[in-house]
Amino acid sequence: MKWKVLVTARAFWVSGQEAEAALREAGCEVVRSSRAGPLTEDELIEALDGCHGVIGSSDAYTGRVFAACPDLQIVARCGVGTDSVDMRAAADAGIVATNTPGAMSEAVADFTFALMLCIARRLHEGHALMINGGWNEFPGSGIYDKTLGLVGVGRIGRAVAERSKGFRMRVLAFDPALSREGIPGVEFTDLDTLLRESDYVSLHVPATPETTRMIDASKLKLMKSTAFLINTSRGALINDGDLIAALEEGSIAGAALDVYAKEPLPADHPLRRAPRCLLQPHNAFNSLESTKEMSRQSAVTIIDLVQGRRPDNVCNPAVWDSPNLRVKI
């Protein structure tokens, strides 16, 4: 059987030439969706007709999609986040779901630090002024010797902590999923203490029922009025309305965001008009090196299944015990 593989991930379109060639060599037909993801349920159902695998963006992979696409055997997320994939529904339907952990960690850590420097020193404001013919001074905030609070210290959080050493920053961390030992130079504490003491708060946890809107009005009020919030993880972690209010009131110094609860961020979204807020279009992962590796890992998981092997980085291991398992291993 010749596998048909849909690609909705723009990063794969741009950087996945070698990965696509490997898929074709393994006997797969590779097709693109009519537009890059994230796709809606209805768009996915139409695009996945006759497809056995998908290299996906953060599309809506739901039970309805799985039921409507009987040929689908694997969702290979071209990225680390899996909150757009209903893992239980995928396992129940017998569909393997994978991601690409580690492929983008260094790129996101670089971008996180870039956002921190940019919002602190107001580089985006200076750039906007200059391209419009202006000239002025923009007093900014320092980073050297300040306190960085990491909410989550997995691969990306740890990579950010490593970069902070060059700025001699004190690093606080909150991550209930990890031991409080074993990360040199990182002080574990509770979330409230981290928010009170940090000059920069950077979010690096997945979106789960426990973390959704974890940064709300009550948490923002704990932050220093001179502190900045950076989010390169998931938009659902922040209550947008509460953040906008905090920025308008000046209760925090600013925010730098790369991710949003709804993506693409609507053109009329009030975040676009919030003061002291630096916005980026979900681009932290997007280095040439990281997208090439994401593409490679995504393709390898599909090739493994095509060739009868269990792939690495399976996010729903319960699928192997499903009576409805669609792939033959």
Task: Kindly describe this structure.
This protein has 329 residues and is α/β, with parallel strands linked by helices. The chain has 2 domains: 4-103 and 287-321, NAD(P)-binding Rossmann-like Domain (Rossmann fold, 3-Layer(aba) Sandwich), CATH 3.40.50; 105-279, Rossmann fold (3-Layer(aba) Sandwich), CATH 3.40.50. Helices cover 34% and strands 14% of the residues. The protein has 12 helices and 12 strands. It has helices at residues 10-15, 17-25, 41-47, 63-68, 87-93, 105-121, 123-131, 155-164, 191-197, 217-220, 240-249, 288-306, and strands at 4-7, 29-32, 53-56, 74-77, 96-98, 147-151, 170-174, 186-188, 200-203, 228-231, 254-257, 277-279. The strands form 2 sheets. Strands 8-7-6-9-10-11-12 form a 7-stranded parallel β-sheet, sandwiched between helices. The protein has a 5-stranded parallel β-sheet with strand order 2-1-3-4-5. Strand 9, helix 10 and strand 10 (228-231) form a beta-alpha-beta unit. Helix 2 runs parallel beside helix 12 and helix 6 (105-121) packs across helix 8. The longest helix is centred in the last third of the chain and has 19 residues, at 288-306. The chain is globular, with a radius of gyration of 21 Å.
